[in-house]
Amino acid sequence: MDERPLFGPFSRKGSYSRVEVLDNLFADDRFVALYQETVALPEIDELMLYRRYLRKEDRVLLYGTFSPDLFNTLCQEGYDLYLVEPELNRITGISSRYMDRVYGLSNELVDVMGSGAFDKIVLPGTTIARYSRGELLLFFRNVRQLLTPAGQLLVNIHNARYLKTHVQPIASRRIQDCTLFYGQKVDRNRLIFNLYLKSGNDEKVSYAIEHLYEPDTLFEFAKLSRYTGRTLYAGKTVSILELDKIG
Amino acid sequence: MDEKTTQARQDSCLSFITTLFPEETFQFVEQQTYPDAFGHTGTHITFKSALRELKLSFVSQAHSRFERVFLAEKTSASPFFSRMMEATYEDGQLYIHHVLKSD
User: Fold this and answer.
1) Which of A145, A218, B42, B103 could form a disulfide with A105 if both were Cys (CB 3.0 to 4.6 A apart)?
2) What's the domain range around B20?
3) ipTM confidence
């Protein structure tokens, strides 16, 4: 039985032998571009968000979907930012002046800076939603080693209730001279994102899964790994949470 | 990864660093594969000469066409590694992508 979370027309496309099913959407640059567009949070102005919640004297680590332009702008403004991004095609656009702040793995950062080097870890977009409940416990425990004793996490999460009533069943977008179709579906506590493209003989479908969390659930999980948290902003589509490392 | 591929990768690393530091003799120290704090797995290969320790960290890519490789060095002057460059590993060959430290 196929366990791939494809639905509706994406599932039909995926069943054809001529259509390649990518289990990791980052394998195609056009899917990457579309995904980066769709995970942007239209409700908040990210530049204003970071200007408000980051301090220039703090050393900040970013992990997750982050606009290269935003990274360049904030570095230029004097913020002490570092980025961990394993996929090379997701850092296109970062200025060569700031490439020394881009790492492929957090292990490299520890080799270079030692443990406990960051005042803040920012998980842009809804990065934290990539982790299932089991993975989230491990994540909270593992990132402690990167934070200073008084370090903090800045986290955005989807408003699950809003998403359940406002998912985009199917839409299209033109990227790099190619029309891509995408859709979202909420399945219990998961947001499933499907994508499809056809360009000449090249025909692909892919998917991504995000786990939906209520702020209280996230606080409970974080508490188990010795963090205490608060909501900084509760909007219609997203909430911004801050978690302090304790102990 | 089979033994032959692992050996080919180590040989390629040795050839690469010997080109960068032709006057030094490097010895293989270890190869370790483990996840980072965010759950991404990297393979780290370490070599040592009389003057420095070099670590090459391999990160696979979703498209599988190549791996990203980060080269860092540690000398007796510092307890930490210093990053030197990023490369790609493609078809058994390392290619420099960009240099982070030129001295």
Assistant:
1) B42
2) 3-99
3) 0.93
